[in-house]
Write a structure and sequence with these properties.
Elements lengths: L12 E5 L3 E3 L5 H14 L1 E2 L4 E4 L6 E5 L1 H9 L4 E6 L8 E4 L1 E5 L3 H9 L4 E6 L1 H9 L5 E4 L5 E6 L3 H16 L3 E5 L14 E6 L5 H10 L8 E4 L9 E2 H5 L4 H17 L16
Parallel strand pairs: 2-5, 4-6
Antiparallel strand pairs: 1-6, 3-15, 4-5, 7-14, 8-12, 8-13, 9-11, 10-11, 10-13
């Protein structure tokens, strides 16, 4: 079974060169370092990163899996197995994570944000702050548990604003705990999280912006973009030994396709159409 014989019901898995994968977001060393250790101890790459070709590819922009690609690079892997998707697929959606910050003194948090170079703070209610972020007149907005809110504004082009956004996230990344959340309603989160400092709400990005950032090496902070992928491949558990050996990418791709065919015929592949909530991550 070759690439042209892939079923539309099966994910497009390919062996790609790590050097051909462009990140659009920062990796998180607190995640990528332990992940590299697990890959070595388990001997498998559990979940393939999600990538989309740029102008037909290579290169490919990594939509999801910056930590996995960083871990593979740190391990010296020349190749990685990835799931290739079409960024123009109408079934693929780009959404946004927000950051719920916990365990960081609120007065210290506000003081550090006020010191952010090139940014301006505008006290606001949540509704107006949403509008400012939607119109890209603010980098983000912050909501405290007591309902106080302010928008974080900054001038400049996409790349300058991205640099300031990284500076904003750096303020709390190493001082508090970050939980990725989908809602910008802080009241919905307070019963599930203790010692909440603030909720930081980010704008929605467009695919063209993601590709543009990746091309020039400008990266968004980790844990902001959220790609919803149809037929996402999980628990592939691809042998690292295959990625490590000195065969060509074509030879490894031929092995991959035969391996997938064996999995299908053994009824080891199962697709879930409904939304799924996992409790063992």
């Amino acid at each position: 079974m070759n690439a042209r014989q892939r079923s539309s019901e099966m994910p497009d898995l390919r062996v790609l060169r790590v050097a051909d994968l462009l990140l659009h977001e920062q990796h998180d060393a607190q995640r990528s370092d332990p992940l590299a250790q697990r890959i070595v101890s388990d001997g498998v790459l559990k979940n393939p990163p999600i990538v989309a070709p740029v102008d037909g590819g290579p290169p490919f922009v990594v939509l999801d899996g910056a930590n996995r690609v960083t871990a593979a690079s740190a391990l010296g892997l020349v190749h990685v197995v990835a799931q290739v998707v079409d960024y123009d697929d109408p079934a693929l959606a780009l959404d946004t994570w927000h950051h719920l910050v916990c365990g960081f003194p609120r007065d210290r948090f506000d003081a550090l944000v006020e010191e952010l170079v090139g940014a301006r703070l505008e006290p606001s209610d949540v509704m107006h702050a949403r509008a400012l972020v939607a119109r890209r007149e603010a980098l983000a907005f912050v909501v405290h548990p007591d309902g106080r809110a302010y928008a974080v504004g900054a001038a400049g082009d996409l790349h300058e604003r991205t640099a300031r956004l990284n500076a904003l996230v750096d303020i709390y990344r190493s001082h508090g705990r970050i939980c990725r959340v989908r809602t910008d309603h802080i009241d919905d989160l307070l019963s599930w999280h203790d010692d909440v400092t603030a909720l930081v709400v980010f704008p929605r990005y467009e695919p063209a912006e993601i590709v543009d950032l990746a091309r020039v090496g400008a990266r968004l902070p980790a844990g902001i973009t959220r790609h919803l992928i149809p037929h996402r491949a999980l628990r592939v558990n691809f042998p690292v030994s295959i990625l490590r050996d000195d065969r060509s990418a074509q030879s490894k791709n031929d092995w991959l396709m035969d391996w997938m065919k064996t999995k299908v015929q053994a009824k080891e592949v199962r697709s879930y159409q409904e939304s799924t909530v996992l409790f063992d991550e």
